[in-house]
Every structure is written in C-alpha cells, then in structure tokens.
Amino acid sequence: MEIRLRTDADMPALLAALKATHEVDKYPVLPNHVTREWLLEGDDGMAWVAEDGADVVGHVAVAETEEDPDSLSVHRLFVRPSARGHGVASALLTTVETYARLLGQDLFLEVLSHNVDAIHLYESRGWFRAGGYTAVWAGPDGNHAEINLFAAPHNDPTHVLRLGSGRPTE
Ligand SMILES: CC(C)(COP(=O)(O)OP(=O)(O)OC[C@H]1O[C@@H](n2cnc3c(N)ncnc32)[C@H](O)[C@@H]1OP(=O)(O)O)[C@@H](O)C(=O)NCCC(=O)NCCS
C-alpha cells in the first residue's frame, strides 16, 4: 500500500469509495453529498490517497482550520469498506500528522458521534477530545448530529479552538 498526493484522475475511484462509505457509515450523512464538490470542499488541494496495487482505497485532506488560521484540520478521511482493518486509515493519518508537525502547527478534526470506528481509531492513536457541539443542521432523520472536536497527540493541550459563531458550543 502506498500513500501519495491526490490527483484529478483519482476522482472516479474516490467517489465510488465515498458512495460505499455513505451506505455503510452515513459518512457523509446526506446522500446528495456524495459528490466531487463535497469531497473537495474546504481543502486547499493538500490531500492524499492510499493506493493498493491499482486501486485507490482511501483518502484524507488537510486545510487551515476555519476558526483559527494558525492550526490545521483533517478533512474527508475515509477508507473503502472492503479495504478496512489493514492500517490504511492509520497510514493516512500518520501522513497528515507528520505534515502538521513539520509545519509546527496543531491539528484538529471534527467527527460525528455515530462514526464510532473513526472515534475509536483517533483515541487509539492518542488523539484527545477537545470539545463538541450540536450541529445546526438536521440529518435525514430530523436529528441534529453531535459533533466532537479532537486534537492530535502533538497538539499544545492548552490550545483551545473557538468554534464558529452560530455553532453552539458545549
Ligand atoms: C474510520 C476508518 C477511516 C478506519 O479505516 P481503516 O483503514 O479500517 O483503519 P485502520 O485499519 O487504520 O485501523 C482500524 C483497525 O484496524 C487495525 N489494524 C491496523 N493495521 C492492521 C493490519 N495490518 N491488519 C489488521 N488490522 C489492522 C487497527 O489497529 C484498528 O483496530 P482497532 O479496532 O483496534 O482500532 C473507516 O472505518 C471509515 O472510512 N469510516 C467511515 C468514514 C468516517 O467515519 N470517517 C471519519 C470522518 S471524521
């Protein structure tokens, strides 16, 4: 398995993997978010894919954190369901963590409460919960998702993110 920078040629395989991920994990929550636009949203082009032979099996992106330009956020981490449990997400996360450490920046991510595999993965890698809030938007079931903020193991533990206005914090 190889981690390399994402290219435009990866999009069809990534969208197929994202569709399968939505069906299994409700990630993304809404079916109409299984699009190129959603996948690229908020990322400034810094993104990697995991490749197994000729197959693109996973993706992660990183971008400036909306609420704090001095830190980075992980975006759009997912692994095709048939490729899970072999360390693909761990390898993708290691890549992003190394990138942030080289830039000397703290690294955050947001994860919905129902994405329990992802939360387990972050906690097992030493990420720690740094807050949370209830989404202002409702999912297809009418419920407002609980969003958890996690901080990378290398973060300054006193670095608190001020979550955006209009987003109720705890
Ligand atoms: C969360 C997610 C990315 C994890 O992907 P993954 O590639 O299966 O993750 P990994 O293989 O790196 O780690 C998962 C487990 O496999 C184990 N593992 C790692 N290397 C392994 C190997 N060589 N062989 C077998 N298992 C291995 C890990 O220890 C971990 O086990 P754990 O249950 O004890 O934590 C995936 O489930 C997913 O795409 N979920 C939906 C999308 C999502 O929620 N994204 C998060 C958005 S914030």
TrEMBL record:
One Pfam match: Acetyltransf_1
Does the record carry Transferase as a key word? yes
Cite the PROSITE patterns for this sequence: GNAT
Q: Which residues form the signal peptide?
A: none
Q: Which UniProt keywords apply?
A: Acyltransferase, Transferase
Q: Where is the N-acetyltransferase domain?
A: 1-152
PANTHER family for this protein: AMINOALKYLPHOSPHONATE N-ACETYLTRANSFERASE-RELATED, AMINOALKYLPHOSPHONATE N-ACETYLTRANSFERASE-RELATED-RELATED
Per its record, how is this protein called by name? GNAT family N-acetyltransferase
Instruction: Give the originating organism.
Output: Gryllotalpicola koreensis
Q: What does the record give as the organism's lineage?
A: Bacteria, Bacillati, Actinomycetota, Actinomycetes, Micrococcales
